[in-house]
Every structure is written in C-alpha cells, then in structure tokens.
C-alpha cells in the first residue's frame, strides 16, 4: 500500500536526515518503525505526509508510492484527501478548541458531513474518557487523554493509512498499554493500515506485524515482529530490551561493534 | 446627569465600532501572529468608495455599501496575495514592517485620489433625533450600534459553528497540525485578511456617516491598537469589550476633562488607561496566557 524507495532527505540543504531508506507497509497491517533519537523516524513520516517543507526539509532522491501512485511533491491537504493522515509527535492537539471541535477538525476534508456526528460517538466508544470531557478545552486534558484525542482525531479523517508518531511519548506505562491495545482494535475494526514510529520498541512490536529498525538515516534491520523480538542480539543493541544479568555480555557486544 | 448619559451613549456607539475594527486586527494576529498596521487605511478606503458611488454615480446607499464591501474583500485578498504570502516563511516582524509600508502607500493613494478635505455623506439615516428621557440619540448612532451588534453576533456564530471558522481557529492554534488535518493555511490567511478588510470598511462607513470622511480617519488604526491590547491581542471577546471600554473612556474624557485643560485629552486618556492596565495584567484583560501543562 505504501512503498518508500531509497528515499533521501536533507534539511536546510545541508543536514542529511535520511540516507536512502526503503520500506513497505502492506494493506491492513501495522508496521513499527523503531530506532533511537535522530535516526530519521519522524522525518520519514513527515516526508510521507508532505510536511517536510515547513521544517525546511527536501526530498533529494528516491520516491514514495501510495497505492501505486508516486506522491512526493503533493501538498499536505491533498495527501489527507488521498487517505494518508499523520498524527504528529507531541500530540499537537488544538489546545484552544474543545475536545469535540478537535475531533471535528480531524474530519475537515471529508465530504460526508452528515456522518461526522455518528463517527464522533464511535471515537467515544474507543476512548470513553473523551466523552466525559467533550466540552473541555483540549489544552486542559492530561497527557494520556490528549494522546487519545490525537489518535481519535486521526481516525475522524477515515484514512486508509494512519501514521502515528510516538504515541507513547510522555505517557504513563499503564496507559501506553491501553492506548496500543486500542490501536490494534481500531486497525481490526476499521481495516486501515498503520505505520507507527516508536522509541518504546517492546510495546510497539507487541501489536505490529512487521518491524523496521533505523539508525543514522538508514534501515539497519527489518523483519516480522516476533523475529525481531526473538533475536537477542538485535533487541539488546538497538531496542534496549534485555535482562539485567546480561550486562557484561552487552558491554562486550558494544565494544565488538565499535571495532567493526 | 443627562450629560453623563449622553457621553455614555456616544461612547458605547463609537466603542462598538472600535470593537468591530479591532475584530479584524485580532483575527489577523491570531491566524498569523502579525499586527496589521495598515488597518487604519483599510478603514478609510471603504467610506471614500461608498461616498464616491453615492455622490458621483447616484447609487443608493445599500447598493453602494455592497459594492464597497466587494471592493474591500478584493483589497484584503490582494494585500494577502501580494504583501503577506511572499513573506509566509519570513519572521513575523517582516510582515509587520511590510504593513507599515503598505499603510504609507495606501494613505498616499487616498490623498491623491480624494484630497484632504472633509467630505460628508448625504443623509442616509433619518435626521430627526430621538429623545429618550432627555437624552438625545441621533438615528445614525442607533443604527450604527444595531449594525455592529448584528455583525458581532454573526461573526461569533461563524467562528463557533462554520467549517471555515473552525479552520481559522485551528490554524491560529497550531499551523503545522492544522495543515496535517488537510486544512490549507493559505486559504485561512486569505480568509482572515478578507474578513479584516470587510469589517474595517463597515466600521469606516459607519464612522463616515457620523463624523464625515477625511484622511485623518486612518488614526482609528492607532486608536484600535490600545483597544486590542487592552482586550488581549488574541481574544475576540476582549476586542469587543475593549472597544466599548476605550470608546466610553474617550467620550468621558472628552466631555469632562477636555474643557478643563483646553482639549486634547480625549485622545491621550485611552493610552494612559491601557498603560495602567498592562502594568497589572500584561496579557490584557482577556488575553490568553497560553495553556501550559506543568
């Protein structure tokens, strides 16, 4: 459904953020994009949703295809109409608007205005907390509630491909689990494809079908989620998953990597 | 006492017009963070065109007003397209400087086309003043007040419930997030400048009917500045209440203090009050401090 080919992006014409990454999001699947800070995960999502220009970024090589059509160079609002919706990092809900207005804003490009009321109710079923707060200004919500709102706002656009940028950022671990379970449920019920960027690899891989690991603007590893989780080497190097006792071993492996 | 009420009513009427003009100012600030310092020139273009249509071409008032509004909308769109859009990614201060240049340009154009003398509107509203319990209210004042009130109600409904209103508020809140919703920031900018130019023209026509039209009317752009600062730069309700407050203060000062010092205080008092209020409330009476999560 989404195919990125050898994509290269620079910021301010000098800082290289992506050095030729390729990835695939198959129809109806959840794909997790993992990696440390500055690996280029958010840049990838912004490139797909056409929002690079606002940050001074530029695609210099490679291509992005959505349902077989090349989509780089298309304006953000046209991309939303085509069915790609990015829920940005840091939630970015409209603080001065009420919860309900935020959800309505998500449906901005939709033509079927009559169904919006019903769809808002559906979001309230996924996230019952939002219903209680529906008339509150979104800026006064807690971090977790804001994240639910940000995801709900994305669903209101009825996208074919939902891009989620760090939905776990700054949220209590228990709530993170709840939100991710909800994401999985939503995917099954709405039948959309999801590309989720995460630092919290464990929880992301627990719902994803497929995972990509990025480092320094490149994809260094990809495979089925179960495969990645099972591979001890990878989970310790890139994802910080490992048991406490393997400290020594870990240090050895790191050193070995530097020698490479 | 009657004198007091007389001043109060004058203040309320003039203040409501200030509020209307300030609304355009606030809209542009909220959407793009820029101050439109050419707002005063937006105000004078309207009445001059309306007047020209009525006197030279003998067009009836309502038709002339409609044409004036269409022209103002085009003026607003053109300014957004030619002056503001090329500076979209430039610092906000560049946009503000550009509006200063624009104001000189438009002021010069007004002088060139229509000259310096004060022109009066042919009587549009009934002339016989109403006498309400000893207080004299001319129909112009009453009508201006009604028009402003209706407009303000229409605008608040527009912002609260319409799709474009929602987009304007969303863009004001977070531009990048709004464009990720599929909202076109360019469209929202164009809409705010158009609305600002239209409300400025309506305000100008009303003031023109009350006081006559001359180029110094552009100073309302300067008077509106304390109005919006008083109300809080980003608050629509603040602009309206600030408008009333400044209008009333100005007329009270004009009525009671000017005779004592020989005139001139009318224009100074609003600024003094604004200074005092800003010392106590730096964000204005209704301005948002921004919602911060701690």
Automatic annotation (TrEMBL), chain A:
UniProt xrefs under Gene3D superfamilies: P-loop containing nucleotide triphosphate hydrolases
BP-aspect Gene Ontology terms: L-amino acid transport
InterPro entries named among the record's database cross-references: AAA+_ATPase, ABC_transporter-like_ATP-bd, ABC_transporter-like_CS, BCAA_Transport_ATP-bd_LivF, P-loop_NTPase
Domain ABC transporter: 2-241
CDD domains (UniProt xref): ABC_TM1139_LivF_branched
Record's protein name: ABC transporter ATP-binding protein
The keyword Nucleotide-binding belongs to this UniProt entry's keyword annotation: yes
PANTHER family in alphabetical order: ABC TRANSPORTER SUBSTRATE-BINDING PROTEIN (PTHR43820:SF8), HIGH-AFFINITY BRANCHED-CHAIN AMINO ACID TRANSPORT ATP-BINDING PROTEIN LIVF (PTHR43820)
Family of this protein: Belongs to the ABC transporter superfamily.
Keyword set, alphabetical order: Amino-acid transport, ATP-binding, Nucleotide-binding, Transport
GO molecular function term, any single one: branched-chain amino acid transmembrane transporter activity
Protease as UniProt keyword: no
Pfam families: ABC_tran
Native organism taxonomy: Bacteria, Bacillati, Bacillota, Bacilli, Bacillales
Origin: domain of life: Bacteria
Automatic annotation (TrEMBL), chain B:
Localisation per UniProt entry: Cell membrane
Superkingdom, taxonomy of origin: Bacteria
Molecular function as annotated in GO: transmembrane transporter activity
The UniProt record lists the keyword Membrane: yes
Transmembrane annotation, as ranges: 7-31, 51-79, 91-114, 134-159, 187-208, 220-248, 260-280
The UniProt record lists the keyword Methyltransferase: no
GO biological process terms on file: amino acid transport
Keywords (A to Z) from UniProt: Amino-acid transport, Cell membrane, Membrane, Transmembrane, Transmembrane helix, Transport
Predominant location category: membrane
Membrane topology category: Multi-pass membrane protein
Record GO cellular component, one term: plasma membrane
CDD domains for this protein: TM_PBP1_LivH_like
Family: Belongs to the binding-protein-dependent transport system permease family. LivHM subfamily.
Full protein name: Branched-chain amino acid ABC transporter permease
Organismal lineage: Bacteria, Bacillati, Bacillota, Bacilli, Bacillales
